[in-house]
Amino acid sequence: MIDEFLSAANPPAIVGQPQILIVPHAGYVFSAGTAAYAFKTLKNFLYDTVIILGSSHNYPVDGLALYNGDAVATP
Q1: pTM surpassing 0.85?
Q2: Beta carbons within 8 Å of 41's beta carbon, 6+ residues apart
């Protein structure tokens, strides 16, 4: 399913390497097309570090929840 959204995305070529990417965080039916468009824009760029910020959907958090690992696997 993700490959289909990425195949359909056709972002324009950009000048310069983006330093920030803000992507919607909702169900696929609502935001996958927009997220694929944003991520495909980065296809030809390399990054050493990526910081992901998001909200908790399953547990109430008072303050900050921080992942203590070295890497994560994504689809």
Answers
A1: no
A2: 11, 14, 18, 21
